[in-house]
Design goal:
The complex is a heterodimer. Chain A is α/β, with parallel strands linked by helices. In chain A, 30% of the residues lie in helices and 27% in strands. The chains are: A alpha/beta, B mainly alpha. The interface between A and B is medium-sized, with 35 and 28 residues.
Chain lengths: 290, 235
């Protein structure tokens, strides 16, 4: 039986205008499909296209050619608002109106969305340590992020787009955020795309990691799959030549990542090099692919 | 829709109040200065610095625009672009009427107080019913032109979604709002300002349109620059 994909991106091309005559191509014929109820980590270096992809899905950026479908229905920048009842996001705190209070924001969102989880709202308010009657400008960036997290989670979305949602929040806030996120996913089968650089923190959270590089999807794997497929080889001094099976290097650790550990081991023994083997962390995989 | 307008108003209430206070303070200062001097004659209302009543639209646009992506979150909500646009335009009109109303009321009160305390000094530049009506008629005359350009801007934004295009749209809108006062002056026969006869005023009578237009544009850009200095990057 075929699973209905929650999001399908097909042949997406998107370019930013640097000026009237020059363009920077971000995506060229980019495709991706996501299953419902899963958490996806969208990873890549700065400028890889993570934010652009999320903005295209929300209809904030025009793209041509290409098609984005939500549950099989085609979205266009002009009609995306119809789908945004079910797609929410955590934007940058700079987008908020500074003199509007957190309470007023919650009321405005509650009126705008068809569904609203009052229980979750109460839970988020309870775990926060600031006054929601204060205007946004009186809140710290971390506290603003908490308001934005509440605004994204409470409308009971089917697809949640998180672009650096944890920003400068403290560990306690992050802990509660993960907890709330997991409960939302478990209760409502929400699909989550989380673009973040705090990759070690989300290592146990996501089902699949999507690695973007220069607007291309270069790898798509689950954490367990990554750890069983790849092996980290650590050296006293990194070899100057490329080793068999090597797919990337971690310069700081003096290590390489191999997709074929047996071949790599044999090659290293032939060359008479000393090494240690380790299971790679997601950060190791990220560095090697980046 | 009403919620969007309320949100804009909540966000800009302080700025609008500041705008009213600044202009009333200017008028009050001028009046106080003249009352303390042993000379009679007329004092210009602080509102002359706006060029025309429609000069408000410039600073108001700047107020409504916000800084670095402020308000962009509205585009992430399940609201159509038209609704967001209409919400902002309605807010602008409402804010315009509100600020104009408050300034008129403030000027009338000051004018009344001047009459009460001094027979020799009077306040000029205070709008009367006829002047407001003239301005309002002109406003409605310029609306189709404004709407056409606004529609053009929206079409442009849809066609070319890029930073440069957005910059062009903003520049276009700024020019529109800068030009509206100019059109106002060209089309109004009895402008809100009553100009008394002194040497400077004679000059203004001869070159009034040019002077007020230049003043208007200059003030518009100055207000914009003062309010959000960083916006100069866009021009």
């Amino acid at each position: 039986m075929n699973t209905q994909m929650i999001l399908e991106v097909e042949g997406l091309s998107q370019a930013y205008s640097r000026n009237i005559f020059r363009k920077t191509q971000v995506f060229d014929d980019f495709s991706l499909s996501l299953e419902p109820g899963k958490i996806y980590a969208l990873l890549g270096r700065n400028g890889a296209g993570k934010t652009t992809l999320l903005n295209c899905v929300q209809g904030l950026l025009a793209y041509k050619p290409g098609e984005i479908r939500f549950k099989g229905e085609t979205m266009r920048p002009g009609n995306t608002h119809r789908f945004l009842q079910k797609i929410t996001s955590v934007p940058s705190p700079t987008e908020m109106f500074p003199t509007v209070t957190a309470d007023q924001y919650m009321n405005f969102y509650q009126k705008t969305y068809d569904n609203w989880d009052t229980e979750l709202e109460a839970r988020i308010r309870k775990t926060s340590d600031f006054d929601w009657a204060k205007p946004i400008k009186a809140l710290s960036t971390g506290q603003r992020m908490q308001v934005l997290q509440a605004l994204a989670l409470c409308p009971e979305p089917e697809l949640l787009l998180l672009d650096e949602p944890l920003g400068v929040t403290d560990p306690v806030v992050r802990k509660y955020f993960y907890k709330n996120l997991l409960s939302v996913v478990a209760e409502r089968e929400t699909t989550v795309i989380i673009a973040t650089h705090l990759i070690n923190e989300i290592a146990n959270l996501f089902d699949e990691a999507l690695f973007l590089k220069n607007g291309r999807l270069i790898m798509r794997k689950g954490m367990a799959e990554m750890q069983s497929n790849y092996q980290k080889f650590i050296f006293d001094r990194l070899p100057d030549v490329k080793i068999e099976g090597e797919i990337g290097r971690m310069i700081g650790d003096g290590a390489i990542l191999s997709e074929n550990p047996e071949k790599t081991e044999l090659d290293l023994q032939t060359r008479g090099l000393n090494f240690k083997q380790e299971t790679p962390s997601i950060e190791d995989v990220f560095e090697s692919f980046a | 829709m009403i919620d969007i307008i309320k949100l804009h108003l909540r966000n800009k209430a302080h700025s609008l109040a500041l705008l009213v206070l600044v202009f009333l303070t200017i008028t009050l200062l001028l009046v106080t200065l003249r009352l303390t001097l042993p000379r009679s004659g007329s004092v210009k209302s602080g509102m002359i610095f706006l060029g025309s009543w429609f000069g408000f639209l410039g600073p108001l646009l700047v107020l409504a625009r916000g800084k670095n992506g402020e308000g962009k979150f509205l585009s992430r909500l399940p609201l159509s672009r038209f609704k967001i646009f209409l919400g902002k335009v309605t807010f602008l009109i409402f804010a315009y009427v509100l600020v104009t109303g408050l300034l008129c009321a403030g000027n009338w009160i000051i004018s009344g107080l001047v009459k009460l305390f001094s027979n020799s000094v009077s306040l000029s530049g205070v709008p009367n019913g006829q002047a407001i009506l003239n301005d309002a008629i002109t406003f409605f005359k310029t609306i189709p032109f404004f709407l056409f350009l606004a529609a053009l801007s929206l079409w442009l934004q849809k066609r070319i979604s890029s930073n440069s295009a957005n910059g062009l749209v903003v520049l276009g809108l700024v020019l529109i709002f800068g030009l509206i006062p100019f059109f106002t002056i060209l089309t109004i026969q009895h402008h809100s300002f009553t100009i008394s006869s002194t040497g400077v005023v004679n000059f203004l009578k001869s070159y009034g349109t040019l002077f007020v237009t230049t003043l208007n544009l200059a003030l518009f850009f100055a207000a914009m620059g003062l309010y959000r200095l960083r916006h100069f990057r866009n021009f």
